C-alpha cells in the first residue's frame, strides 16, 4: 500500500526538514512525500532536493516556475503522485498545523471510505487555543458560509488535511476544478460530495504555525467568497 502525502510549499525552509523527518518516521511502511515547491525565494526547493537524496527517494519533488497558488499546486501534485503509483494520496500543509500523528488513523479510516478529512469542526476537533477571537470567528464563519451556500453535509469544508483513495481522485473531474487559492479545498469537497463519495471526518487539533509566515491574503479570501457562490453554477450538472 503506497501512500504519498502531497505537500505544497512556499517559503517553508524552517519547517520542511522536521516535517519530512516526522512524516517518514511514522509506522507506515510505504509512505512517501511529494513536495510541490513554487520556486520559493527562501530556497525551500533546494532543501527539498537535499531531503530527496537524504531519504533515498521516499521524498519526491515537483519544482514549479513561480507562485501559482495552492489549487494548481495540488492539481499537478495529484497527477504526479498517481502516475507514480500511489494507492492513497494525502494533502497536508507544511507548517505543522495538521497533526502528523493522525495519518495512521486516517489510513485506517480510508479502508471504509472514499475520502477522509482531518476535521476541526467535529466533536473532539479544535482550533488553536491561542488564536485571537476574531481569527477563530473568521475561520468558523468561512466554514459555515461555504456549508450553507453549498448545502454540504460534512462539518469541516474549508480544511486542507485530507486522504484520498486513488480511485476517488481518479474519478474527480479535475479539468472542471478551477479554484486556484484556498477555495480549492471547498471545491474538491463539494464535487466529491455531489459525486456521492463517502466522506469520513476524524477530529484534529489545528495548531497555528510557529515558524514561517502564512500565505493567506485578501485576494485569496475574496476569491473564496465569490467562488463559493460561483461553484453552485459551475457544477450544477453534476
Ligand atoms: N506551492 C505552493 N504552496 C503554497 C502556496 N500558497 C500556500 N502554499 C502552502 O500551502 C500551505 C498552507 O498555507 P499557509 O500559509 O499555512 O495557510 P494558512 O494556514 O491558511 O495561513 C503551506 O504549506 C504553504 O507553504 C502556493 O501558491 N504555492
Ligand atoms: Mg498554515
Overall number of structural domains: 1
Would you identify the CATH H-level superfamily?
Spore Coat Polysaccharide Biosynthesis Protein SpsA, Chain A
Figure out the total of helices.
8
Largest sheet: 7 strands, mixed
Structural class: alpha/beta
Secondary-structure blueprint of this entry?
Layout: E1 3-9, H1 16-24, E2 31-37, H2 44-54, E3 59-63, H3 70-83, E4 88-91, H4 103-110, E5 115-119, E6 126-127, H5 133-150, E7 162-165, H6 166-171, H7 184-194, E8 199-203, E9 205-206, H8 218-234
Helix pairs in contact: 5-8
This protein binds guanosine-5'-diphosphate (GDP) and magnesium ion.
Please name the defining characteristics of this protein.
single chain; 238 residues; alpha/beta; Spore Coat Polysaccharide Biosynthesis Protein SpsA, Chain A; two-stranded parallel ribbon; 8 helices; 9 strands; 39% helix; binds guanosine-5'-diphosphate; binds magnesium ion
Brief digest:
This protein is an alpha/beta fold. It has one domain: Spore Coat Polysaccharide Biosynthesis Protein SpsA, Chain A (Alpha-Beta Complex). About 40% of the residues lie in helices and about 15% in strands.
Amino acid at each position: 500500500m503506497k501512500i504519498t502525502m502531497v505537500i505544497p510549499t512556499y517559503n517553508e525552509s524552517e519547517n520542511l526538514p522536521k516535517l519530512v523527518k516526522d512524516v517518514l518516521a511514522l509506522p507506515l511502511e510505504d509512505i512517501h512525500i511529494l513536495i510541490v515547491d513554487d520556486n520559493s525565494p527562501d530556497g525551500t526547493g533546494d532543501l527539498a532536493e537535499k531531503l530527496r537524496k537524504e531519504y533515498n527517494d521516499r521524498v519526491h519533488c515537483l519544482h514549479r516556475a513561480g507562485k501559482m497558488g495552492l489549487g494548481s499546486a495540488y492539481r499537478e501534485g495529484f497527477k504526479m503522485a498517481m502516475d507514480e503509483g500511489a494507492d492513497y494520496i494525502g494533502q497536508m500543509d507544511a507548517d505543522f498545523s495538521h497533526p502528523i500523528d493522525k495519518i495512521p488513523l486516517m489510513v485506517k479510516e480510508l479502508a471504509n471510505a472514499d475520502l477522509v478529512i482531518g476535521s476541526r469542526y467535529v466533536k473532539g476537533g479544535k482550533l488553536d487555543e491561542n488564536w485571537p477571537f476574531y481569527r477563530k470567528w473568521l475561520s468558523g464563519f468561512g466554514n459555515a458560509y461555504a456549508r450553507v451556500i453549498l448545502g454540504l453535509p460534512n462539518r469541516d469544508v474549508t480544511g486542507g488535511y485530507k486522504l484520498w483513495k486513488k480511485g476517488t481522485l481518479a474519478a474527480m473531474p479535475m479539468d472542471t476544478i478551477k479554484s486556484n487559492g484556498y477555495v480549492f479545498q471547498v471545491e474538491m469537497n463539494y464535487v466529491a460530495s455531489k459525486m456521492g463519495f463517502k466522506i469520513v471526518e476524524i477530529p484534529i487539533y489545528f495548531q497555528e504555525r510557529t515558524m514561517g509566515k502564512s500565505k493567506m491574503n485578501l485576494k485569496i479570501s475574496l476569491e473564496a467568497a465569490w467562488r463559493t457562490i460561483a461553484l453552485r453554477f459551475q457544477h450544477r450538472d453534476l
